[in-house]
Structure formats: structure tokens, C-alpha cells
Amino acid sequence: MAVLLFPGQGSQYVGMGKQIYDNQPVSHQWFSQADEILGFSLSKIMFEGTEDDLKKTSVTQPAVFLNAYVNFKINESKVEMSAVAGHSLGEFTALIANGVLKFEDGISLVYKRAMAMQEACNNTQGTMAAILGLEDNIVEDLCESSEGIVVAANYNCPGQLVVSGEISAVESLVERAKEAGARRALVLNVDGAFHSPLMASAQDSLREAIMNTPFHTPHVPIYQNISAKAENDAEIIKQNLVKQLTSSVRWTQSMHSMVEDGHKSYAEFGAKVLSGFIKRYDRSLETQNF
Question: Is the dihedral of CA 36, 40, 42, 45 positive or negative?
């Protein structure tokens, strides 16, 4: 038994999905279905697009979602799930693997989420930065003392925290983080300020779509980003997905909860990002990748 993990935005790469498409003909149905639902050839962009093509939020999110989902479907018989978790966008893939959402509803919500976030990015001047080698509380204090909007966005693993907010506030925090002893602090090449108050307009757009989509009771618990604990109630899961857009991804805290709840084995689909965080959290934990 293992906790199934699904990556989020940032795990995309040129040619993603092509190998499994070429080697697993059964996968063609999901790529074709996604293209039909979205109304454009996402698979072509995944297989042949440039890094810049894949970097657009409106493409990145459905691409990462689809790649992880197809890898899960091809390999689901190889591992029995004890729970699921996803990093930001990855929560939607986790919910489909867990029986909460249908595939077609999941990719539709992901695309609506991506478009809403893209619009919010276009209407605000925001960015993100990775801060490495500082304790979380020190970075939190730097955010609190900043002029302008900048918040802790992604608690990825101990010693790695991503901040998000207005460009000037983020750039200033990067310099102050270096002065505070950060091993590395750098502004990321992203479209906007994800998981910050600057995503409020996207949250409003996504709320209606989520509330109008059928969610079913999960087969196993899902550890959600906003609560960092196991959830089983479909209505709470919905509300947490809406809140997630402007709230922190509490992945470090989620790993702590999963370990505290006795989960010792983890399997990631579509990337090697989250399994890497798991190993950095506790090297004794078992991980595998598909």
C-alpha cells in the first residue's frame, strides 16, 4: 500500500507524454479525449511544443494534469493506494485517481482553473521566488515585514519555501533573504503570483465551476494542501479546492501529517518532484516513480 502523489505546475518538460503515447497504445484514448474536451490539440503541444509553449499557465496545467493521469492509468494495477495527495494542481489528478471526480470533469475544471489564473496573472503584476536554506519561520517573518504583498506560497520541504506576491515586494524579499543567510534566493520564471491574494479573481471564477461539478465520496483519504490533513468529506474537499488558489500549499506540513498517520510508502505519477521532497523530508521512507 502506498500514498499516490501527483505533481503540480513546474513539473512540465518538452516532449512530456510522448514516450508513453508511443509505447502504450491504450493511452491514445485519454490524449484524444482531452483534445476533444478542450477544443485544441493539447497532446500536440505536449509532444512537440517548445518550453515557452508549455510555460503558459493555460497549457501547463492541463498538460501536467494529463501526463500524470495517463501515467496513473497505465500503472495503477502496480500499486495499491492507501491515500492520495497532490501539489496544488495535482490535487485534481489525485481526486480522479481516488474516485471523487470523473476524468472529463477533472480536466474541464483544470482548464477553467488555468484560464482563470491566466487572466488573474494578466491583470496583476506578480511573481514568485524560491528561498532555500532558511527556516520557514524566518521567511514568514520576512514576508510579514515586507512593504507590499508577499506571502509564503509553497512549503515544499524543510529548507525550501516559495514566496509569491507583487514583483517589487518579492524582489525586495529575495535580497533580504540573502542578507538573512539564505543558501539561495531567486525570482522564478513564472506567469504570476500563484497562491497569493493576487489570485482572488481566479478564485471567484473557479468557485462556481467547482460547486456545479459532482464530487463523490473518496475511496481513501486525500491530504489537501490547505489543511495539510486527511479529508474524506466531498463538500469540504470542494471548499478547500476553492480556497487553495489564494492560500499556501502546505506540502511540508502534509508530509508530516502523512508520516504521523503511519504512511511509509509513496508512489508518484508523471514526475519525480514530490518523491524527491519526501526523501528530503525523511530518507527512510519508500518512494517509487511512474
Answer: positive
What CATH superfamily classification does 125-187 receive?
Malonyl-CoA ACP transacylase, ACP-binding (3.30.70.250)
| 88 included as an active-site residue | yes
The CATH fold assigned to 2-122+197-289 is Malonyl-Coenzyme A Acyl Carrier Protein; domain 2 (3.40.366)
This prediction's pTM: 0.94
87 included as an active-site residue = no
Q: Kindly report, residue by residue over 39-82, the tens digit of the pLDDT.
A: 999 999 999 999 888 888 889 999 999 999 999 999 999 999 99
Q: Tens digit of pLDDT for each residue in 209-250?
A: 999 999 999 999 999 999 999 999 999 999 999 999 999 999
What are the Cα distances from residue 46, in Å, to 32, 53, 108, 141? 13, 9, 17, 40
Catalytic residue among 11, 27, 82, 88: 88
